[in-house]
Structure formats: C-alpha cells, structure tokens
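Justification of computing resources. Each target in the renewal requires a structure prediction run like the one illustrated here; the chain below, 67 residues long, is used simply to show the kind of job we budget for.
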Amino acid sequence: MGKDPLVFAEGAVGSPKMAEMDFPGVLLPVRSDWAIGQAKHRDETDVTVSATPREQLGSKGATWTKV
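Resulting structure tokens:
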C-alpha cells in the first residue's frame, strides 16, 4: 500500500515554512474547491490557517495563501 503524498508540512512543495514543533493538518470540506491547511504552533493556542485550490494539492504549482 502506498503512502499519501506530503502536501502541507515543512518540506512539502509549495507549503509555507513551518517550525519543527508545529503540528500541521489539512481539511477538505465537502463540495468545496478549496483545501484548508492549519498549523498549530507547539503548545500555544495560536493556529495559522492557509488555503489552496483543492486541484493543486500535491502539485509543484501548489500555492498556500495565509488567511
């Protein structure tokens, strides 16, 4: 069984910069053309939220925009 591609994490193509202790996650809302990425910063309550067109996930042209 293959692995899922890395799309929102430090080192993923097009992904925003993240620290070693950030906890990234991706949400794919039903019937939405957008993917939502969120990164929780260590034990802090702050979360950074970004979005990209769903069709760009995993592509070299992926561009995450901070919202």
